[in-house]
Write a structure and sequence with these properties.
By secondary structure, the chain is an all-alpha fold. The chain contains 10 helices and no strands.
Length: 299
């Protein structure tokens, strides 16, 4: 009887393990890169260069300002990264199985990344909205500040003030941005691992470091224009007449293109790339270490 019950937990654990591992690695990485992410958002909101933003934040708000919105960032990873990395692992495993165990071509990896990104974004949009609002709050005039205490207070206030559906405000650009980011990040990572490990003979550490650097760059280049639009949509406030500056993502994109040109969408690219690449690298490194630990203890 005891022997018959053992496969059940193993089967259940193998099903949820990609999601648990993905969420845990993303949350650990977020704890490290949160200050860089905070500076990136302030740059996108037009507060100056990375150096200016950093000096002003330290002078006016103190060191704690760099970790404002950390609870929302962790909640976002617990939802968004759990869903996207878990989904990508399952989708690629199914695709490899359908491909008779052969390595997937790049376009199939890209399709898996696009799908996983869309799934993750739909699940994680409420936390992403809370994160953007909490990070942007200090940039608003005192009368317009929402003064959220933490991520859960932000979610509660958004539901109370704007309704449940407001949690998915900006979901369109968020999903598109996540699809672009994950296509760049996940597909290029898997492809780079094959290149560094199988073709060039790199060791495990060098493979993870090299592949995550490549995927971080492509994730940044593919996603920043969509991230810029998403940030503008999520942080916008109505004017005195109750009108919003943009009617939607397309209107925001067109007005941005008209006023600042194509390069406007790449505002803050260096700091964005610096933020994305370390997060990607640490996510993969933490994930690798978590998997090693699980293998060591027999999970």
């Amino acid at each position: 009887m005891g022997d018959q019950k053992k496969p059940k937990p193993a089967g259940a654990w193998s099903a949820v393990k990609p999601f648990v591992n993905g969420g845990a690695s993303g949350m650990l990485a977020t704890c490290v890169v949160q200050p860089i992410d905070m500076v990136k958002v302030r740059i996108q909101l037009g507060q100056g260069s990375a150096t200016q933003v950093t000096k002003n934040m330290l002078k006016e708000e103190g060191l704690g300002a760099f970790y404002k919105g950390l609870s929302a960032g962790l909640l976002r990873q617990a939802t968004y990264t759990t869903a996207r990395l878990g989904s990508f692992k399952i989708l690629t495993a199914k695709a490899i199985e359908a491909n008779d165990g052969k390595p997937l071509p790049l376009y199939q990896k890209a399709l898996c990344g696009l799908t996983a990104g869309a799934i993750g974004a739909c699940v994680g949009n409420p936390a992403d909205l809370a994160l953007i609002r909490m990070q942007a709050d200090a940039t608003l005039p005192p009368a317009q500040r929402r003064n959220y205490k933490n991520a859960f207070h932000a979610l509660y206030r958004i539901i109370a003030d704007e309704g449940v559906l407001a949690l998915w405000k900006g979901a369109g650009p968020t999903v598109v941005r996540a699809m672009a980011l994950n296509m760049g990040m996940l597909a290029s990572y898997d492809q780079s691992v094959e290149l560094f490990r199988d073709s060039l003979g790199f060791g495990e550490a060098a493979t993870v470091l090299g592949a995550s650097t490549v995927s971080g760059f492509f994730a940044s280049a593919c996603s920043l224009p969509f991230d810029y639009v998403k940030t503008q949509i999520q942080k916008m406030q109505p004017d005195a007449e109750g009108k919003y500056p943009y009617t939607g993502s397309l209107d925001c994109a067109l007005k941005t293109l008209k006023s600042g040109g194509l390069l406007k969408f790449y505002t803050g690219f260096p700091i964005y790339c610096v933020r994305i690449a370390p997060h990607v690298m640490m996510t993969w490194i933490f994930l690798n270490q978590i998997q090693k630990l699980e293998k060591k203890v027999g999970l």
